[in-house]
Amino acid sequence: MQKKAASVSRIIATIINECRLFLKDIAGLSLLLLMPIVLTVIMALIQDAPFREYQNITFDVLWVDNDHGQLAKKLQEDFSQAKQFHLVTSVDDKVLDDAAVKALVQKGKYQIGIVIPNGLSAEVINSANQIANDIGSKIGAPGKLPQRESRPGNDIQVYFDPAAKQTFKLSIMNALEKFTTKSEAELTLSRLAKTMKSQDGNANDSVNIDLQNRLRAVGIREASPVSASIYGATNSVQHNVPAWAIFGLFFIIIPIAGNMIGEREDGSLTRLKLIPGSYFDILFGKLFFYVMVGVVQFYLMLQAGVYLLPHLGLPALYMGHAPISLFITAAVISLTATSYGVLIGTVFRTANQALPFGSISIVILSAIGGIWVPIQILPHALQQLAKVSPLHWALDIINDLFLRNGSFYGILPKLSLLLGFSAVFFIIAGIVEKRRKR
Questions:
Q1: pLDDT confidence tier of residue 375, bands split at 50, 70 and 90
Q2: What keywords does the record list, in alphabetical order (predicted)?
């Protein structure tokens, strides 16, 4: 009986002790409770977007009309009236042409570009004449409309940002298919109404079936804004491996923050500070070491996509044709992640504060940065918020190199942004540590 009472006493004492430890670190307890709430709210907003299936989202669509015919005007009218699309016919006061559309979409400045080919309306009218003549011969209606052989190659060209996800493409292509089918049907039926003056009520079902099968003069073809070899790499591996490699790289903040807090607690940081010189020298040494670790980690994850995934039945990762630019990018991304880890390890005093905030903040930054879902389908406010996430810019740079055929000078502005993030994190960490009171 006494042993049982003693055991209960030890359990109660342990509970009381843990409560005291938690109460000593109110900031850590608050972060432990509040950060999951923030994560829940952010993820609810983000994950709501795919369930809406792009229905309540407006996309800027580059529009080039080389036809100027009835069907092209009808298509433009329908697209302009749709809430999902905003047609852009000129950029920087310059009317768009095919080359401009390809260039803007390739650079990722616009997600979609549509080019209406010359002669599209004439092909639809010719198809309507063929259908009217066939129906007329079956129901005995008089008249013979002019017709010719159908001419292939009148497909509407649709260009997508090479970094666009496949689900995004399918949703947009389905919407385009509905618009073009509707416009073609209306134009064809109006042509029939003007030319067919009588109709036999005994017309059989084969006429209707024939009409449905023949009403396909307009084709929609996804075209590549970049070379075929690069464009062919837009698969699940190409999108997911770099995204999750960046996500994994940023989790280097966990060991960095943990080590820095441990150094303060065991006194080793104090001994380092006793060495003559600036504390920024100490931070620079930490940065250099962890940047090298991050670069190695990043390349290992990419190499898994190149060599391991093909053995599992998946395509191999295409790593672009700019290895030097890729190495510089990996180093800059690793520097940004390391600087953020140093900031977390400096600002927070205990592991209970740093680790929950650091890990959950990375999940939030990756979610709003396009690692999980395309930012194009997010609410407008979250799309703007994505710009404060370094993971968004890191993924955009990798997409430039791997998918958009980007050059070093093309990615330089985005690299500068990441270096700006690093500098801000690094400077704040240095200032906070220098002013810390012991």
A1: confident
A2: Cell membrane, Membrane, Transmembrane, Transmembrane helix, Transport
- Is residue 427 a contact partner of residue 280, using CB atoms and an 8 Å limit? no
The token duo for 8 is 């209960």
**What is the Cα–Cα distance from 355 to 344, expressed in whole angstroms?**
9
Residue 42 has a CB neighbour count (10 Å cut-off) of 18
Question: How far apart (Å, rounded) are the C-alpha atoms in residues 184 and 47?
Answer: 36
Instruction: State the pTM of this model.
Output: 0.75
Radius of gyration of the chain from its Cα atoms, rounded to whole angstroms: 30
**CA distances, 153 to each of 68, 76, 414 (Å):** 17, 20, 39
Amino acid making up residue 43: M
Check: CB of residue 84 under 8 Å from CB of residue 73: no
Q: At what angle do helices 279-303 and 323-347 cross, to 10 degrees?
A: 130
Is residue 368 exposed (0-12), middle (13-18) or buried (19+ Cβ within 10 Å)?
buried
Could you tell me which CATH class the domain 59-225 is placed in? alpha beta
N-term to C-term CA, the chain: 49
Residues 132, 145: contact at Cβ < 8 Å?
A: yes
What are the tens digits of pLDDT across the range 194-249?
A: 555 544 444 444 444 344 455 555 677 777 776 544 554 567 788 888 988 898 88
Least confident of 182-186, 294-298, 392-396: 182-186
Residue 394 has a pLDDT of 95
User: Would you tell me how many other CB atoms lie within 10 Å of the CB of residue 299?
Assistant: 16
Lowest mean pLDDT among 208-217, 389-398, 409-418: 208-217
> In the structure encoding, which two tokens stand for residue 33, read together?
């409770």
Q: Of all residues in the chain, what percent carry a pLDDT higher than 90? A: 12
Residue of 336, 334, 328 whose CA lies nearest to 421: 336
The per-residue pLDDT for 138 is 62
* 198-234 as b/e: b if 16+ CB within 10 A: eeeeeeeeebeeebeebbebbeeeebbbbeeebbebb
Average pLDDT, the chain: 76
Q: Which two tokens stand for residue 46?
A: 């983000």
Assess contact for 133 and 211: CB atoms under 8 A.
no
User: What SS3 state is found at 106?
Assistant: helix
Q: Read off the pLDDT band of 432 (50, 70, 90).
A: confident
Q: How many CB atoms lie within 10 A of CB 166?
A: 12
Return all residues near 212 (Cβ < 8 A) that are at least 6 apart.
none
Question: Nearest-CA neighbor of 234 among 102, 403, 110, 407?
Answer: 403
Indicate the domain borders of the chain: 7-51+232-435, 59-225
